[in-house]
Amino acid sequence: MNPIILGIESSCDDTSAAIIKGDVILSNIIAGQKVHEEYGGVVPELASRAHQQNIIPVVHKAMKDAGVAPEEISAVAFTRGPGLMGSLLVGTSFAKGFALARKIPLIEVNHLQAHVLAHYIQEREERHETPKFPFLCLLVSGGNSQIVLVKDFLDMEIIGQTIDDAAGEAFDKCAKVMGLPYPGGPLVDKLAKEGNADAFQFSKPRIANFDYSFSGLKTSFLYFLRDHIKEEPDFVENHKNDLCASLQKTIVDILMDKLVAAAKKTGIKEIALAGGVSANSGLRQAFLDGNEKYGWKTYIPKFAYTTDNAAMIAITGLFKYQKQEFVGQEVAPYARMGI
User: Fold this and answer.
1) Pick from 249, 82, 272: which is nearest to 167 by CA?
2) pLDDT tens, 279-289?
3) What does each C-alpha distance from 43 to 46, 49, 88, 196 come to in angstroms?
4) Neighbours of 123 (CB within 10 A)
5) Which of 4, 240, 270, 322 is deepest in the core (most CB within 10 A)?
6) Angle CA(203)–CA(207)–CA(212) in degrees, nearest 5?
7) What's this model's pTM, rounded to 2 decimal places?
8) Which residue intervals of 136-280 are DSSP H helices?
9) Where do the domains of the chain lie, and which CATH numbers do they carry?
């Protein structure tokens, strides 16, 4: 009989709960927090307070939409880290209380592993093909840019990662410099579709091995705008689409160059994409182009499973449930965790 897992995600500013039966998702509810928009970024204290307000209604709706009663749940999986400590504490505390009250197992989940394993979420309508081991996964989000060698469901190794800022952070901060509202990444993607990606050139870092760096790009972008605004005060407004397109192309090129190098070095042709930045249309297209250019077999998750969501926590919880990897009530969240 397939276990039914309740997943809880609260690592940043999205409160999410999901119900999965076996590997089939029954519900995936996400409550966002618009309160951060006026501050240009997530405010940790406000995020944790909003999680406290959202967690019970979100879990209730997830169970209602799934048609699952509390007594039918086999285990509860929750994000232990990495993330904002206050936010993580809300999800962890709820999960511990739920598991204790129902006398069911408690499963801690690494948020980064969950992004990778989102590829294995199946839906009721039809099953889709999933990555075969071993595969490489490019994990890109607001806080992480990593190339992960995935040997098995719970056996992963980071072979490349950012030494400073993440790709998503570069998108958001460069967008802020252009006067775009937070979060800027999706707006850059939207405006880039109307611009010329070859209009401007920005510097690309030279980092050893498969590691990334985006701090230099942000600095070069800032100085580029400063110098051009001196000559043309309305430079950003007059060239916004081209700026977004050129910025996006530069970030995608940086990400893909390292991934291509890692694929050649390892000889692996099963290549997956994960994380919030995987919703970027330019990166998705570059990934699809890899099938023909490099003979890859690529896997890109549905948009619903790219950003922070509890479905990915639930599917990871399933694989841990199958191995009986449970934790006790003494478990505490970690703001920083490796994969």
Assistant:
1) 249
2) 999 999 999 99
3) 6, 10, 14, 35
4) 15
5) 4
6) 85
7) 0.94
8) 167-177, 185-192, 215-231, 235-238, 240-266
9) 4-121+305-322 (3.30.420.40), 135-300 (3.30.420.40)
